[in-house]
Structure formats: structure tokens, C-alpha cells
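Justification of computing resources. Each target in the renewal requires a structure prediction run like the one illustrated here; the chain below, 107 residues long, is used simply to show the kind of job we budget for.
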Amino acid sequence: MQTAAMACATCGIKIEGDFSTPLFDRLTPEDQKFLEQYLLAGFSIKTLEATGSLGYAAIRSRLDRLIANYENLRKLDAHKKAVLEQLRTRQISVTEAKEKLEKLTGE
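Resulting C-alpha cells:
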């Protein structure tokens, strides 16, 4: 999903266009919540363990999964940018770029 519009709640001004979203916003809600809990625990597994219901092994496993998910998003973005650069420099056609992007995103 991509952000297509932004609006000011105070003045009502609305802007439409293609806006990029930070990688953190593209993490699953579950991963975002875990990251927030980890941040609020001062990035301490011990503190998170003491304040929550998960043990060290479960927290470490979730943290490893979160890191892997974030790395996958970074790699996907890098591949997309590479395809768009190939298109910009006319190394590939629009059709080829579309096919490559669809293959990357699984559409």
C-alpha cells in the first residue's frame, strides 16, 4: 500500500500524490508494536522480559524476525530502485520494468 493523499486536520488542506513511506511504517502492526515496546524498554531485552510476558528466548526470536523483515524491506526497495534506474537510463523498456517490478512485489 502506498500513501496517496495527506490532509491537515486543522486547516483542511489536502495534498494528493505519491508519497514514500518510511520502512518502519511498512512493518506489520505486530512488528511495529514489538519495536515500540523494545524502544520503550531502552532497547534492553532484560527490561522487556521483566515488564512483559515473554521470556528471553521468545524476545530474541521476535527481535531476529523483526530485523530480518526490515532487511527484506530494504532489499526490496533497493531492487525496485535498481529497476527504475535501468528504466531511467533506457537499459530496459517500460514493459520490462513493469514485469520486473511485478515479479519483485509478487503481483
